[in-house]
Protein 1
Amino acid sequence: MELLPISTPHCRVERDGHLVVVTMDRPEARNALSTDMLVGMADAWAYISAEPGVRVGILTGAEGTFCAGADLKAMGSPSADERVRRRAAEIADFHWKGLLRLDMPTKPIISAVEGYAVAGGTELLVGTDLRVVAESATLGLFEAKRALFPMGGSAVRLPRQIPYAFAMDLLLTGRAVTAAEAYRMGLVNQVVPDGQALAKARELAEDVASSGPLAVQAILRTYRDTLGMAEEEALKVSDALGWPVIGSEDAKEGSRAFREKRPANYEGR
């Protein structure tokens, strides 16, 4: 994989064809969030959205841990890296963008979770579109237990993603949750043997990347743009986004590939 220059001391951003892998890389602190990490992630999400050849992103953590949440001291301190300090000044709300709270990527993001994914780590997972979790991973939104609030957006997002009773259980008790329980709640897509989360996420990413990129992006946008709308209004938005996909060159290529019994070669147009 190619290491991209938007990487920072606490965030590796690597590209492999249609895929970008974003690795939270502060293992000595269980990959707790820092300014260096959040700036790198904010730039990574913007890169994934802007690059036509990128179709999927993966978010993971270094050395067997996803993310142990916020390190308030590290998040409030300036970086020792001059380029990171400059980008922190240039990117409005880089904390929220890095946390997937603002300016969500226009392409799917898959989380590959090993070890701890608690507090801000679970908030990051909730901000991703597909979730692969190792069987011994620990998840949980601990904020209420510490008299804090989940500022990454989970108080809003979680009850929209999983049944209300499960969401309130996680949010109000602040308890730890196993991978198996998270799967039963519908919070994650797959539970895999320890050490296999990234490999399985890459398989899933390849599957998504083989779909028509215009269709994938339109489906994501339709969901996001219609939250809270009545069905009649939501369908108007869906039609406005869907009809251009139906008339695209990719759609024609999809039909040809089906008839000719071969893999489709989508170009995003």
Protein 2
Amino acid sequence: MLPSYQDIIKDTSAEIAKLRAEIPDTLRGFSAMAQGASKPGALDAKTKELIATALSVAARCDPCVGYHTQALVKLGCTRAELAETLAMAVYMGGGPSLMYAARTSAAFDEFTQAAQKTTA
């Protein structure tokens, strides 16, 4: 059974909050870097999140998969856009990336279903 990505990001966010209190300068720096990299420019926000998702697959980072697929759902990403992103991640990363592409697909479905429930 695949993990619940909603639970993963909830639990990870709680642990990050603890770290924010313990190492505030580091977390402020990380947040500034994230904001700078995510700011729309030549690439729009969705394209940047698709790139982050592909890198999350390559790095095999479950919390990253959760955060970035949740963001993609909020940005209106289609399943086709996600699928093409995952195809590139698998192409570049081989079998291990295929395993995380499957997890990312499940995470996208989980967040899509949750978003549909809140708008219904």
